[in-house]
User: Which sequence fits this backbone?
């Protein structure tokens, strides 16, 4: 079972492994999403950062070298793939609870933004933050979400909105990739809002994105993806297409914010642009579901954003019933979702979007990995994949994770084959 490497872990007595995929599948669609693909009474062998063997406890014999072998006893516990959060803005300088109170007192998210709050408020704080401060606060957030089960995460820029600050954010993300045990993907979201000084001069800011930011991002290897907030009051379809096409020249692929407040062609544009994912999708009709059916774009729902802003939820039930794959991510950011807790998403998906716990777990693991092009290495428990695993506490079933909300059901995290706690 084990080779000659010096770092070996054996997880034994596992009550059940969820998302056990010996068949190498990389996403689940429609009815497949209801399958949890379990393997009961099992062990998992890990060497260095890779899962090297999975088997039945009754077949576990032949270990001759117990030296340098770390044992995790998972009696009465479940093992799941670490969660894959494909959409966050978790590098930010300041929280925005003032706006939260303003919303309770009657203002809408869009009204707050129009008064210079919202994204522009975060950009002001970002301008004054040092790289070191941003790294320190982001590392704390990464550590928090890891303890809640997350093992891979996408992080966007978009609170800079100047050449200097956007690059600063992305350089911070690059450092986080080196410093954090989580797998991180970086997305350039310079097109998040128009800065005040370019409110009447969109061309001027697009010029900065295209001619000042993108060349440096490419040269320094600062991002894998490009994003834009395609929405009324933010970026039009034409503006989004220009940013995405310019980024394509540097090899950045699109993952786009579309159909959050309005349904006016954003999703169809994302599909036409070959987007890896189309995110938000609170505003959907039959035409949008049909458009997704003929595409490889992963639809991503962000239910904790709907919860926090009191907005409609993405109609995931209809989408799955239509045969689509769906992913669910947090949107962790200081304005619309100040939480990176993926276990809470399981509860929201079940209670607000009528997903079974199994469907919700597939949406935050294997399909989340797909939404950031990590499905060859992440998102399921398979031989050859990265050993990024959750060992749960002693819980009666996997469904319990979605049912018993507000609690942390994660006991131990294993990332890159290492025990994190
Ligand atoms: O995904 N919708 C656009 N951007 C973020 C919110 C940004 C903010 O309010 O700071 C989102 O919800
Ligand atoms: Fe977002």
Assistant:
């Amino acid at each position: 079972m084990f080779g000659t490497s010096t770092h070996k872990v054996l997880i034994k007595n596992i009550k059940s492994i969820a998302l056990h995929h010996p068949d190498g599948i990389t996403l689940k669609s429609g009815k497949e999403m209801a399958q949890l693909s379990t393997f009961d009474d099992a062990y998992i062998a890990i060497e260095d950062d890779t899962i090297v063997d999975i088997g039945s406890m009754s077949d576990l014999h032949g270990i001759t070298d117990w030296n340098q072998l770390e044992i995790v006893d998972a009696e009465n516990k479940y093992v799941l793939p670490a969660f894959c959060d494909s959409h966050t803005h978790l590098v930010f300088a300041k929280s925005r609870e003032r706006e939260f109170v303003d919303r309770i007192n009657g203002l809408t998210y869009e009204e707050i933004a129009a008064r210079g709050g919202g994204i522009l408020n975060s950009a002001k704080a970002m301008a004054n933050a040092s790289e070191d401060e941003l790294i320190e606060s982001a590392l704390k957030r990464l550590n928090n979400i890891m303890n809640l089960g997350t093992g891979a995460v996408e992080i966007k820029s978009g609170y800079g909105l100047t050449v200097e600050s956007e690059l600063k954010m992305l350089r911070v993300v690059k450092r986080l990739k080196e410093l954090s045990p989580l797998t991180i993907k970086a997305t350039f979201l310079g097109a998040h809002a128009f800065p005040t000084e370019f409110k009447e001069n969109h061309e001027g800011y697009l010029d900065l994105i295209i001619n000042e930011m993108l060349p440096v991002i490419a040269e320094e290897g600062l991002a894998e993806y490009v994003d834009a907030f395609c929405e009324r009051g933010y970026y039009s379809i034409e503006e989004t297409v220009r940013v995405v096409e310019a980024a394509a020249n540097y090899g950045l692929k699109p993952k786009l914010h579309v159909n959050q407040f309005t349904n006016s062609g954003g999703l169809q544009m994302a599909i036409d642009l070959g987007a890896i994912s189309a995110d938000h999708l609170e505003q959907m009709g039959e035409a949008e579901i049909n458009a997704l059916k003929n595409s490889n774009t992963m639809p991503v729902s962000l239910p904790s954003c709907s919860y926090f802003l009191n907005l409609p939820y993405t109609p995931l039930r209809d989408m799955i019933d239509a045969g689509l794959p769906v992913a669910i991510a947090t949107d962790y950011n200081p304005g619309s979702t100040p939480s990176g807790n993926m276990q809470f998403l399981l509860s929201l998906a079940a209670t607000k979007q009528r997903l079974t716990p199994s469907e919700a777990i597939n949406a935050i693991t294997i399909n989340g990995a797909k939404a950031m092009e990590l499905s060859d290495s992440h998102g399921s428990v398979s031989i050859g994949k990265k050993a990024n695993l959750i060992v749960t506490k002693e819980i009666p079933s996997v469904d319990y994770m979605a049912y018993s909300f507000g609690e942390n059901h994660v006991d131990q995290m294993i990332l890159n084959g290492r025990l994190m706690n």
The chain has a mean pLDDT of 96. The domain at 84-370 is CATH 3.20.20.140 (TIM Barrel). The longest strand covers residues 8-17.
